Amino acid sequence: LQVAIKAVIRASEIILETFGNPEGIEYKSRVDVVTDTDKRCEEEIVKIIRSETPDFGIIAEEGTNFPGEKIWIVDPLDGTKEFIEGVPHFVVSIALVEGGQPTIGVLYNPVTGETFTAAQDEGAYLNGEPIHCVTKYNMSEIVILTSRSETRRGLWEPYVGTFGELRAIGSVAYKLGLTAAGQADIFASLRPKSEWDICAGTCIIREAGGKVIDLNGNNISFNQKQIRIEPGLIAGDIQAVDKAYKVFTANT
Question: Residue 126, CB half-sphere, CA atoms under 13 Å: how many?
């Protein structure tokens, strides 16, 4: 846990140097963007965790790939679009996976100073204070954190009126942290995500008393051959996830 915290803090120093003035913006695909900051953060994170845990593997978004049974899964800057736009909805995300499941999860928002941490069987914390998933009884009151891009594309329109609020926020990992901290009932995505998007957040959600499932109703494993989590996912309070899953299933 301390290794992960050390790494996210170093990456966050780099992020703050260029926040508001991003450099080296490139499009990896029609929708995926990367900056020089993403790359520099990954280099520094890899340097730290390789020096501290040389026998562990690493998978990171910008191309680092050292296989291993115990493996770090890293997103050096989750929410790059928000970072470019100057919107403080992004985090550094680092998880340690053993036996296919995350045992350590750390998320750090450099702008707000929010540090979400969890270790297996030790609970989840925000800035050192315990956090727990929460939910409301009525579906009409439930708050779901959703994707800004999915919202812009109209994917959430069929659910307007079903839930209490559909709140679009950047960064998948950040939404998982906020949900674990009880600032929403659920985070849900209607499109596939990558392991590095959700791994640390999954550990934090679980340690906060919640659960994470894909839109087929399955629990999620990591460090598998397939790094994409398909077709989407739901995370949050257990009862809220179960209720929302029934709604999503009825609409497919």
Answer: 19
3-state secondary structure of 159: helix
Q: Is the pLDDT of residue 252 over 70?
A: no
What is the secondary structure of 43-75 as a DSSP string?
HHHHHHHHHH-TTSEEEETTS-EE--SEEEEEE
Tens of pLDDT, residues 185-238: 999 999 999 999 999 999 999 999 999 999 999 999 999 877 788 999 999 999
Tokens of 23: 């450099």
pLDDT for 96 equals: 98
Strands (E), 127-189: 129-130, 143-146, 165-168, 186-189
Q: How far apart are the first and last CA of the chain?
A: 39
Q: Provide the 3-class DSSP secondary structure of residue 140.
A: helix
